[in-house]
Amino acid sequence: MGKIPEHIIEEIRSKISISDVISQYVSLTPRGGRLWGLCPFHNEKTPSFTVNEEKGFYHCFGCGKGGSAFNFLMEIENLNFVEAASRLAEQAGIVLQEETPLDRERRGDREALFELYRKLSDSFHYILEHKPMAETAREYLRTRNISQKMIKAYRIGYAPDNPDWLYKFLRSKNYSAELLASSGMFSKNNPRYPLFRNRILFPIFDKRGRITGFGGRALDNEQNAKYLNTPETAIFSKREQLFGLSQALDAVRSSQELIICEGYFDVIALAQCGVQNAAAPLGTAFTEQQALLIRRYTPACTLFFDNDQAGHEAAVKTIIILEKAGLASNVVENTRNYDPADYLQHETPELLRETVKKRINGFNYLVKKAVNKYDIALPDGKLSVFNEVKPYIEIIESEIKKQSAIKLLSDYLDIDEAVINRELQNHVREKNSYPARKADRSSNTSWSENGMGMGGNFGDAHPLKPARLTTDLYLMLTLVNNRKYFQTVRQSISMDQIQDVFAVDIYTALEESLREGETSFEYLVERLEFQESRNAAVGSYGMDEFSDDGEAQKIIRDAVRTINLRDLTSRQKFIEQQIRASSIQGINEIQLKDLLYEKKFIDEEIKKLRKS
Predict the structure, then answer these.
(1) Which of 74, 144, 430, 497 is the most buried (most CB within 10 A)?
(2) Residue 259: strand pairing partners
(3) Is the whole model's pTM more than 0.85, yes or no?
(4) At what angle do helices 349-357 and 264-272 cross, to 10 degrees?
């Protein structure tokens, strides 16, 4: 069966009692206006699993799972959404209907893009393997020692230099101009001009093995970018995917580790040498979204980056992101100025395999790099080392792990652990006072009193993850409960301005729901990628804190102002740094004039926002 129409989902919700569904699996006892029981999803002795019959949702304060009757059946019976809906519809005596043509049309664009990319990948791969025009590409791959087996395994292809063929070819296959314009395969300025020309192409697969986009490596020096990715489309976001992860999943699950390297050729080089559990970001810095994606499959990562300053800086940032996501980290002790692809090209597979085995714990790596950078015989040197590793220590959730890190740092710096602990406490800052003020309100159903945020608790309950509500997430949760304001908000702030990874997840789901014309909370939750986002959305749903329209408008107005001010301030600092640097390094007079003009404009915008 295809997608179930929204009105059927709403009818099922209205006729099904969530307590009747859950009581078939859990013994529920009324207390404090709710039903309580032992959570069926984790072991516990004190009930922390609660059902709110009025709102139609369940939530466990122990493990954080939550949702509607649909989510409960999906989780406990291992069903997909349609199967759970069918089961509940049968209980409610409702006959399920297939999607109407209009329903199918609304979601058809995504499926059409997946199909287009699959066929394009086949064509590019065939051209690489068989066409004379691809001989330069084949020769380049030979110089990199890439085997034919790897070319097939990663479906590597070649985009011809001819700027006219692709559009004509696809139009001859009856693809519409509208679909091609939204496909990400053509220039925004010229919808007939291919984005990828004279490039080796690497298909990028999602977790279900579907091709969502391409990365392209230029074969000449005339093109502006050596590497180029598909732009953001309805099915592709480079900050949420990793090259090679789809092919690596079996090895990752087996080894319980993912090796993160820097590029396409690095992943392929490792796989060719027998190290199958490697993946790479898509030409950009590693992101929180990618860390949370990895966390679904393994608890640990090992970094294998270039042995240069840029590689070291990337490793430092990645280690902190991994720790924030709850992932253990190690770093390959790469003593040569080689990346994995260089080892394949210039050394033996055995040496590459042996190099991968030489690794250091992520925190040890941070400390060693900082100690080598500063003179720890001097007080200022010790303080500099502390400041370098402080961001990592601050985000460690486990107190045992945190104190172990402090002890190691204490040994390196020859400073008492108590002194480091006091210094950390002195550096504790409320990173975002806005949501903290909101959480301190005296509402009868505030986040803190419900134990669903800001560190509050309910008996033996634990805070909803993430415990610290950022401005971004607070805004998105307000919009979850006040969907009518989302279209206005999306005109004021873009997704790129959102920093909280779970807020980005909710923003994406709201955007997709708006495009599909969906209003159902069920389908919104179904679209959320991360369990933490689902927990936050479900935990907030229908709370008094978000139900007052006037208050909701104030929250939205203040949060949008805060986000825009944050974005402008960040840009302002960058422009000021560029201007200061120009006095030392020298800069084109026209460029300096442009910087000064932009700074003036940003200063005025910040001034307006602060007055509003």
Answers:
(1) 74
(2) 278, 302
(3) no
(4) 100
Does 6-92 carry CATH code 3.90.580.10? yes
Displacement of CA 157 from its chain's centroid (Å): 27
Residue identified by tokens 């003020």 is: 437
Q: Measured in whole angstroms, how far is the alpha carbon of residue 260 from the centre of its chain?
A: 15
Q: Minimal CA–CA distance to 369: which of 304, 322, 420, 313?
A: 313
Please report, for the chain, the start and end positions of each structural domain, with discontinuous segments joined by +: 6-92, 108-229, 245-367, 374-426, 433-559
Pairing of β 227-229 and β 258-261:
unpaired
The 3-class secondary structure across 275-339, one letter per residue, is CCCEEECCCCCCCHHHHHHHHCCCCEEEEECCCCHHHHHHHHHHHHHHHHCCCEEEEECCCCCCC
- 536 vs 534: CA distance, rounded Å: 5
- Residue 3 DSSP class: P
pLDDT at 448: 34
Q: Residue 397 above 90 pLDDT?
A: no
Q: How confident is the model at residue 200 (pLDDT cuts 50, 70, 90)?
A: very high
Q: Tell me, which fold does domain 108-229 have in CATH?
A: DNA primase DNAg catalytic core, N-terminal domain (3.90.980)
143-197 residue pLDDT tens: 999 999 999 999 999 999 999 999 999 999 999 998 999 899 999 888 899 999 9
